[in-house]
Amino acid sequence: MIKAVIFDLDGTLADSMHVWCDVDKKIIEKYGGVYTPEISEKLKTMTIEQSSDFFIKTLGLDKTPEEITNEVAQTVFNQYRYEIKLKDNALNILNFLEKNNIPFCIATSTHRILAEALLQRYNIGNRFEFILTGEDIPKSKKFPDIYIASAKIMNTEISETLVVEDSLHCVQTTVKAGFPTVAVYDDFNKNDFPEMIKLADRFIYNLIELENIIKDW
After folding, report:
1. Looking at residue 138, what DSSP letter applies?
2. Tens digit of pLDDT for each residue in 130-170?
3. For residue 61, what pLDDT is reported?
C-alpha cells in the first residue's frame, strides 16, 4: 500500500527540462566555452552547486560557486515565474491524492526560489507537505539522502513511499534504496526510458496513469 508520494519537479511535474539545456549553453558560451549536448547530459546528474563547480573548473572562471549558482538561478527565474507549465494532468493527480488522503511532497535538485516561483503561479505550493531541494540536501540524487529525508519527514516507511521520477540516475538510486518507483516519460529522457522501464516498478507517459497504479499497488 502506498501511504505517501515523493515527486521530482523538473521533467516530472513541470515541463522544464529544456530550460536547463538552454542555461547550460548560455553560461558556457557567455564565458567563451564550446557547448555540446554531452555537457548537459553530464550536468543533469548534478545539483546546481555541483554544476557551478563544473563551470568554474571547466571554463577557468575567477568566480565563486555562489556567484555562478546565483547567475544560473537568475537566468532561469523568469521562466519559472512566468513561462514553464505543469505537465498534463499534474493538478488532477494532486486532486486524486488529496481525495484519498495520501500526502505528497517535492524532492528536487532545483533551487527553492525557482520551485516556489512556479508553484506560486499555479497557487499550489501549500498543497505539498514540503519541498526539499539541493540546498537542503547537498548530495546529488545519485545518493538516496533526499528521498530518505522526505520519507522520514512524512513518517512513512521506504517500502510504502512512492517516488515519481523522470531521470535514469534517480530511478537507479530509488530502486536500489528500496523505494517503490514510477518512471515518467519526458521528451528529454527518451533515450534513457527503455532502461528506466526495466528498472522501475512501473512506468507512465502521463501523470493521470498514477491513479490506477496507486489504486492497484
Report:
1. -
2. 999 988 998 899 999 999 999 999 999 999 999 999 999 99
3. 86
Cα separation, 82 vs 144, in Å, equals 31
- How many other C-beta atoms lie within 10 A of the C-beta of residue 95? 13
Helix 17-30 crosses helix 65-78 at what angle (to 10 degrees)? 130
- Identify which has the larger pLDDT, 33 or 44: 33
Residue type, 10: D
Residue 44 has pLDDT above 80, yes or no: no
Residue 138 identity: P
Phi, psi of 182 (to 5 degrees): -115, 125
The residue to which cell 548560455 is assigned: 26
* CB neighbour class for 158 (10 Å; exposed up to 12, middle 13-18, buried from 19): middle
Identify the pLDDT of residue 120.
Answer: 96
73 — phi, psi (to 5°)?
Answer: -60, -40
Half-sphere exposure of 148 (CA within 13 A, CB side): 13
What span, in angstroms and rounded, lies between the C-alpha atoms of 191 and 168? Answer: 10
Contact 161, 180 (CB under 8 A): yes
Position 146, amino acid = I
